[in-house]
Amino acid sequence: MRKVKLQMQVSLDGFVAGPNNEMDWMTWNWDDKLKAYVQEITAPVDTIILGRVLAEGFIPVWKERSKEADADAFTHKMVNDPKVVFTKTLTDSPWENTTLAANIVEEVMKLKDQPGGDIVVYGGACLASAMIKNNLIDEYHIFVNPVIIGKGKPIFADLDSKLNLKLVRASPFDCGITVLCYTPANG
Amino acid sequence: MRRLIVSINVTLNGMMAGPHGEMDWHMPYWDDEMSHHAAEQLGSADTLLLGRITYQGMAAYWHGKPAYFGARADIDYAEMMNSHHKVVFSKSLIQLNGWHNSRLAVNTLAHEVKALKQLPGKDILVYGSGKLVMALIQRNLVDEYRLWVYPVVLNNGRLLFKGLQKRVGLKPAQVKVFGNGVVILSYELT
């Protein structure tokens, strides 16, 4: 079965976005080692999953970046990798290489059953919450930002029971982000 | 100047306790490696600040602890818990129940903490005490956070930083990784 990885920036108090989806608190000037970490976990990925609201920012932004002369392989990968966008409202996909889906559990299980590389989900909060609640994440890469924002959108609030995890590694980076990588614990 | 360090056990999703104050989620992880580190941390301090509930719980446990039973790290820990200067902040307590070297704060939190920081001495430690931690944050009295992050997510509980009205930017200090998957994330205030 294919592996589903979650990669999200999180405030120290556990939010992935401000209450109005603010992302200005996040550290974006990633140092080379953090970029290398992301390259490493993204290399085996061949499918990107996004929630609609995130997709509406993510897809055009990476498309624009890919037009620049110095656009790197990672940028092209973000544009070229097939995407699945979860939406309850859109009926036709306005984006290239992108299919739409409405039923998260059904669609993700279907993807996992197909042959292929890893699947990465970048958010948003609603999609991540639903996937976590339904035990669809195989690997968590939590990018802990050095800031407390007070209020915002969590991703673990929809769980109906305690979730036990196993730490794979904890990596501090010079830009201030500490990445905590976990898998679900057995039993 | 002396530093005030807040050291707290939290879940990955930022909770310091279950909805009714439950701490059972962290107990299975507590092992020799963590005890040793906790004892080192306690040794670098000489003063503890406590809210009422934490004080009452700890006083009951440590006051009568037979320090001559148990592992060396535990004995050292018990000795320090009993000998460290303890300042209790409570609006309702009028006297303490006789735990050695404890006193009730008489001035405001800011006044007491500033006075303590002026005195020579080792670090000032704050364990738990959710309301006390929030009050310290709001008055900019914290110098360092040490969050002991457990590989556990609680679906319901008390958030450590609940109700904070402003953003707080932090400077990452250390990351300590225990063999059992608990990670201490340390941050200094900018």
UniProtKB/TrEMBL annotation, chain A:
InterPro entries the UniProt entry points to: DHFR-like_dom_sf, RibDG_C, Riboflavin_Biosynth_HTPR
Superkingdom, taxonomy of origin: Bacteria
UniProt GO molecular function: 5-amino-6-(5-phosphoribosylamino)uracil reductase activity
Pfam families: RibD_C
Cleavable signal peptide: none
Domain Bacterial bifunctional deaminase-reductase C-terminal per the UniProt entry, residue ranges: 2-178
GO BP, sorted A to Z: riboflavin biosynthetic process
The protein, known as: Dihydrofolate reductase family protein
Lineage summary: Bacteria, Pseudomonadati, Bacteroidota, Sphingobacteriia, Sphingobacteriales
UniProtKB/TrEMBL annotation, chain B:
GO terms for MF: 5-amino-6-(5-phosphoribosylamino)uracil reductase activity
Source organism (scientific name): Mucilaginibacter glaciei
Any matching Pfam family: RibD_C
Protein name: Dihydrofolate reductase
Any one of the GO BP annotations: riboflavin biosynthetic process
Domain Bacterial bifunctional deaminase-reductase C-terminal: 4-183
InterPro entries: DHFR-like_dom_sf, RibDG_C, Riboflavin_Biosynth_HTPR
